[in-house]
Amino acid sequence: MLASGNPGKIREIQAILQNDKILPQSQFNVAEPEETGSTFVENAIIKARNAALHCKLPAIADDSGLVVDALDGAPGVISARYAGIGASDQANLEKLLQAMQGVPEAQRTARFICVMVYLRHALDPTPIIAQGVWEGRILHHAVGDNGFGYDPVFWVEEYQCSSAQLAPELKNALSHRGQALQSLGRQLTGL
C-alpha cells in the first residue's frame, strides 16, 4: 500500500512500477499525517507508520523535495508547503522563483531528493530505506507542461530541458523517485 494521496506521486510511482498495482491510502480513507520530521527519512517513516497502522498492511511511503544550494537547502522537507500549508504547486513555484531572483547561474544548483521507506507493519523496528538524488539547477522561469511540483523550473543538463519537458517515461527513469524505487525494489528482492 502506498502512503500517499498526492495524485502526481501516485501516477509516477504507478508508471515506474508498471505491472505492480498500487493501492493508495486514499482508497482506505486514511488521512495524511502531520509531517513533523526534520528530515526526509523521518517524514517518510511517519507516513508509512500511519498508513500501516490504519490499513493493517505493509506500507511504502516517500518523502521528497527540492534542495537548493543558494537557499541553504530550502525548500527541502517543506517543499510541498513552501508557500504555506495547502499552497498550490504554482504558489510554491512563484515563491521559489522570487527567492532566487538575482542569484547567478553558477549558484543555481539544486537537487531533487526522494527517500522511500517500506514497513512490514506499523511497529516494524527495521524499516527498509532507499534514497534517490537527481542533480540539476533552477531556471529563471517555468518551462514545460509535464510533471508536477517544481518540474517546470528544474533544468536537466544532460537533456538541455526542464524536467517538465521530458517525456514521462524518461523522467521516471532519471528522477529521484525512480532511483529510490529501483533501490527499494532491489532491497525487497533480497528479503
Structural topology:
Layout: H1 7-17, H2 40-55, E1 59-68, H3 89-99, E2 109-119, E3 128-138, E4 154-156, E5 161-162, H4 168-174, H5 176-189
Antiparallel strand pairs: 1-2, 2-3, 3-4, 4-5
Notes on the protein architecture:
It is a single chain. The chain is of the alpha+beta class and 191 residues long. It has a single domain (7-189), classed as Alpha-Beta Complex (Maf protein), CATH 3.90.950.10. 31% of the residues lie in helices and 19% in strands. It contains five helices and five strands. A five-stranded antiparallel sheet has the order 1-2-3-4-5. Helix 4 crosses helix 5 (176-189). The longest helix has 16 residues, at 40-55. The model has no long low-confidence stretch (mean pLDDT 92).
What key attributes describe this structure?
Maf protein, globular, 191 residues
Strand order of the largest sheet: 1-2-3-4-5
Segments where pLDDT lies below 50 for 5+ residues? none
Structural class: alpha+beta
Secondary-structure element order, N to C: HHEHEEEEHH
Number of helices: 5
User: How much of the residues is beta strand, in percent?
Assistant: 15-25%
Helix content: 25-40%
Shape, per Cα inertia axes = globular
Strand element count: 5
Please provide a brief summary of the model.
The protein is an alpha+beta fold.
